[in-house]
Amino acid sequence: MRAAERTEVLVVGAGPAGLATSQALARRGIEHRVIERGERIGYSWANLYDSLTLHTGKHMSALPGMRFPRSAPMFVGREQFVGYLERYARSFALPVETGVEMTGAVRKEGGWRVTTTHGEIEAAALVIATGIIANPQLPRVPERERFGGRVLHSIEYRRPEPFLGRRVLVVGVGNSGGEIASELGAAGAEVTVAVRSGANVVPLRLFGIPIQYTAFYLRKLPRRAQEAVVAAVGKLTELRRGPPVLPRPAHSPLDQIPLIGFHLVDAIRAGKVRVRGAVAEFTPEGMRFADGKEEPFEHVIFATGFRAALAPLRELVRVDERGFALRTDRVTSADQPDLYFVGHNYDATGGLYNIARDAGLAAERIAATATV
């Protein structure tokens, strides 16, 4: 049996979280390796839908040490972002190994023994930077086996052409669902969105400024003041664009990431996308909704989100109600020593902004432990 390879720190994932963590470790002179299950850097991002554009402004979406070029648009597209990740890895000569997937991990004296598709790696510290895209969530809707059409998750959607002229149901109105539904409607598909609990919709820009930048400063205010600002933005939006076309959820936009931009709202107003309630069960021809009504569909796309990709850790960690690992701070495992998570904090300031912040924090924690 081949002996396990050794590294001081093993970083799992070479998307934004893994690359930012690697750069932070390298800057502190900490020896490490980065493994990526895909065949390229930013594999998960490279395989998202073609038209995806960041909702976060480029100034708060860059990774530590490298800004986007001045020529880049305020909201960077998927292809340009993937190119940025590749340049980032090259510029800092980050030690990324592609095509290597973590399959398990066990505690050992002095750290971790990690099992991969290319053998075992021992490390004093382990950083899980696999994000959420690698673990799409598909809800269990009764009678799926009876449905004669195609069922897919939004992670499998690439472009609208295969759906033109088809009856498509998009389940969920998060940001991916909103973009996919509006794109399909504009392209000529017959689109319906199923909305279970409603959606808070906010503008992409507020007075020309990305809403993310506003959210960054808004969070510094007391909760009551934050709610007042959110209410004012909602009233202003209604004055400019009319009453909402999507049901409002019970939660505030401050508590969950809202639907950013009016692409879906505009498609609904234009009659290119219809709105229905929660789904109840599949039928042979389509879907039955919670109100008992049935409609035929040829394709059902579940835009029902993702959960943190933690399967290789199995019972070693506990998770919160959203599926993220329990931590004692933003990055440090509450269950295991020498275990850190980058890419587990999401809020209105943007996942990439939080990754940039947490990568440095994880490196600081690791450096402090190494010197004890």
Report a brief summary of the structure.
The protein is of the alpha/beta class.
Task: Describe this structure as you would to a colleague.
With 372 residues, the protein is α/β, with parallel strands linked by helices. It has 2 domains: 5-135 and 306-371, FAD/NAD(P)-binding domain (3-Layer(bba) Sandwich); 144-302, FAD/NAD(P)-binding domain (3-Layer(bba) Sandwich). It has 8 helices and 19 strands. The chain has helices at 16-27, 43-46, 78-91, 175-187, 211-218, 223-241, 263-269, 351-371; strands at residues 5-12, 32-36, 96-98, 102-108, 111-116, 119-128, 150-153, 167-171, 190-194, 201-202, 205-206, 209-210, 259-260, 273-276, 279-282, 286-289, 294-296, 299-302, 339-341. The strands form 5 sheets. Strands 1, 2, 3, 4, 5, 6 and 19 form a 7-stranded mixed β-sheet that branches. It has a 5-stranded parallel β-sheet with strand order 7-18-8-9-14. The radius of gyration is 22 Å and the shape is globular. 39% of the residues are buried. The mean pLDDT is 94.
**How many structural domains does the protein architecture include?**
2
Helix content: 25-40%
Low-confidence stretches: none
CATH topology of the largest domain: FAD/NAD(P)-binding domain
Number of beta-strand segments: 19
Q: Return the average pLDDT rounded to an integer.
A: 94
Structural class: alpha/beta
Q: What is the CATH architecture term of the largest domain?
A: 3-Layer(bba) Sandwich
Number of helices: 8
Distance from N terminus to C terminus (CA atoms, Å) equals 34 Å
What labels would you give this structure?
single chain; alpha/beta; FAD/NAD(P)-binding domain; 2 domains; seven-stranded mixed beta sheet; five-stranded parallel beta sheet; 8 helices
